[in-house]
Amino acid sequence: MSPRSDGDRRPYRGHLSVGLDVGGTKILGVLLDAEARVLGSVRLPTVTGAAGVIDTAARAVEQLVHAAGVRVSALAAVGVGIPGVVDPRTGRIEHAVNVGIHESVALGPHLAERLGGVLVHVDNDLNAAALGAAHLLDSGTGAGTGTNPRPADLAFLSLGTGLAAGLVLDGAVRRGANGTAGEIGHIPLVADGLPCACGQRGCLERYASGSALDAAWPSRTGRPAPAELFEAAAAGDPDAVRIRDEFASAVASAVRLLVLTCDVARVVIGGGVSAVGTPLLEAVRAALVDQTTGSDFLRSMDLAHRIELAPVGVPVAAIGAALLGAAAPARR
Ligand SMILES: [Zn+2]
């Protein structure tokens, strides 16, 4: 979502919005103004389970508005990004196992009630991250504004416990008929490959996720396995080099899938594994160059230059959640 034009600028009060990125260990929150600038942020440890998540989310909102000297009623909306199966029309979530919610919970309505009736919009966390990344990157390039009206299509590829993507196409989040657009982690990559919890074999996320790295290169010192693996590979350990390159090749396959299905201009790599930083980006770029050798067709797509890392230290998903909330219809 691009900032509103001057002609559409409305009074400041009532156009503040809060975005929350609800994760298994922490809730990150931001307060945005009507121009989508970050006015404040908060980070609280997640209390898992439905009641705990609702309470932590409400406290995050209250702390943000209190710090800004306004009331919750001054908010146009609260947007929530949460991992799991989400129905954005009802605010109901299911199977948000990372935050300890195994049942079906009307998260949006419960949170709205706790916050005095403010509009609450709940969405999948990767949809929020994709929109947040698109907003931040478009702001930097002027895309989606008067001089460059077409926002760049983007995929946010999360390399976390699993692997999945969020999509922003023509400036809007693409959810699909049942909300599963971008669930590319369960596209089979290897025929008769490793069994997956989804019931298939050889799924992409068995080869290109944080859990895949944890299994292939268990942490020796208690630090994150991806960091240890990439350091060992850089130091020349042949097993580490092999595992790193196989992992990078699988991530490159995910990038190729996203570009070939949606022709996204950008694939932003986020999730826990992205903390490896430049060595990860370089490894995936090398794998993309390797995979396109011998194919003029693939080489013409310039895959290696479409990928980038999610901005470090920026609450991308919380910002995207606030934008989703601000854009949500007032009555459903
Ligand atoms: Zn699977």
Automatic annotation (TrEMBL):
<protein>
    <submittedName>
        <fullName>ROK family protein</fullName>
    </submittedName>
</protein>
<dbReference type="InterPro" id="IPR043129">
    <property type="entry name" value="ATPase_NBD"/>
</dbReference>
<keyword id="KW-0472">Membrane</keyword>
<dbReference type="Pfam" id="PF00480">
    <property type="entry name" value="ROK"/>
</dbReference>
<keyword id="KW-0812">Transmembrane</keyword>
<feature type="transmembrane region" description="Helical">
    <location>
        <begin position="309"/>
        <end position="330"/>
    </location>
</feature>
<dbReference type="InterPro" id="IPR000600">
    <property type="entry name" value="ROK"/>
</dbReference>
<comment type="similarity">
    <text>Belongs to the ROK (NagC/XylR) family.</text>
</comment>
<keyword id="KW-1133">Transmembrane helix</keyword>
